[in-house]
Amino acid sequence: MPIDRRGFLAASSSALLLSQLDKVPAVADAKPESAEPPVRDVDVERDSIAVYTTADQTEHRLAQTDTLKFTRMGQPLETQICVFADPSKRAQSIVGIGGALTDASAETFAKLPVAKQRELLDAYFTRDKGIGYTLGRTTIHSCDFSSASYTYVDEGDAALKSFSVEHDRQYRIPFTKQAIAAAGGKLTLFASPWSPPAFMKTNGSMLHGGKLKPEMRQAWANYYVKFIRAYEKEGIPIWGITIQN
């Protein structure tokens, strides 16, 4: 039976399997950052798995629902659903896990009672009471999760003399500051634009496609720089940017 993505997510519960593995012993000799980490002798049957579940129409919101043990098995059948955990195989590390700090989330947050605001911040950003987000993404001016389209400059101001993040001071900047505080004072944050200002694009619109005009490339690059510096002045350091959503 065909099922769309929304239906699948609504019908399924997601389980986060966290293997409670011992830490790798420290080594005396310093290793280059590019070197592979040492591989320890693993007894998978000794290790356990904590299962956390989030499921629609239940009380499960990253709730620990089970504790499992690794067991050895033979060759699985093609019809069996299997997750293979091989601690001897290492891949690239990740910067962190987190979520988006958009205008929509900031405006909704501002409308919550103070107690619910605290509950939300604790649930997402604290380690002792929540899931401990360490990474966040915000937007460079408006995105498709904003209540209206806007930029940080007046229309036609290629010199960016009118640049200001005043719009964000109402909701997004206060929300982001509270998220950083809840995360213990540090939240790796990167930013993405959905579109350059309309006057910088070939179609004269922030919507419906279009491309950056060649003569606006430097102005758009300067726009990134001004955004980063403006947010730093607000006490929100920007770790990185993507050039487009």
Q: Give the name of the CATH superfamily of the largest domain.
A: Glycosidases
Strand order of the largest sheet: 4-5-6-7
| Name given to the CATH architecture of the largest domain | Alpha-Beta Barrel
**Low-confidence parts, pLDDT < 50 over ≥5 residues?**
8-32
> What share of residues are in beta strands?
15-25%
Shape: elongated
> What is the overall number of helices?
5
Between the first and last Cα atoms, what is the distance in angstroms? 33 Å
Question: What does the main sheet amount to?
Answer: 4 strands, parallel
The level-1 CATH class of the largest domain: Alpha Beta
Question: Which fold name is given in CATH as the topology of the largest domain?
Answer: TIM Barrel
Structural class: alpha/beta
Helix content: 10-25%
**Rg on CA atoms, Å:** 23 Å
The pLDDT mean sits at 85
User: SSE order in H/E notation?
Assistant: HEEEEHHEHEHE
In total, the number of strands is: 7
